[in-house]
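Structure (tokenized):
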């Protein structure tokens, strides 16, 4: 198993996809599995974030690799990474191994932003917990 395949399996695990997932899914099935709308999936395809092959009838066929990429994109979006930055990152991936330093820098910068937001949220939670106890409520452990 290659590193990419291992990462794909890990990313698929983040979505808690069913073990009996077919090799190919329709757009409706992919939407159900990923929790995204068909509109969002088509948008991701239209702007080039994913490539979705078509069957003989012209219908989209979502494969496991595509679902892994969608899982990756979904996690980045959940961490407030803009679609334009995700697109730039994926463009760098497509350009090859020589762009790894740029990808690393992009991800390190994004991680720093996530860490700042987590610190801000921890501070907001502490203030909220304090006020709850002031009013006689119970703080969470």
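Design, position by position:
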């Amino acid at each position: 198993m290659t590193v990419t395949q291992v990462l794909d399996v890990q990313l698929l695990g983040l979505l808690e996809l069913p073990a009996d997932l077919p090799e190919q899914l329709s757009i409706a099935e992919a939407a159900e599995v990923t929790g995204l709308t068909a509109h969002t999936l088509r948008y991701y395809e239209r702007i080039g974030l994913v490539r979705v092959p078509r069957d003989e009838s012209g219908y989209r066929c979502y494969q496991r690799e595509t679902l892994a990429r969608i899982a990756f994109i979904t996690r980045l979006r959940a961490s407030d990474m803009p679609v334009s930055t995700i697109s730039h990152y994926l463009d760098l991936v497509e350009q090859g191994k020589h762009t790894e330093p740029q990808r690393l820098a992009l991800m390190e910068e994004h991680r720093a932003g996530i860490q700042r937001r987590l610190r801000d949220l921890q501070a907001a939670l502490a203030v909220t917990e304090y006020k709850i106890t002031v009013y006689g409520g119970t703080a969470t452990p």
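Reviewer-requested clarification: The mean pLDDT is 88. The longest helix spans residues 100-134.
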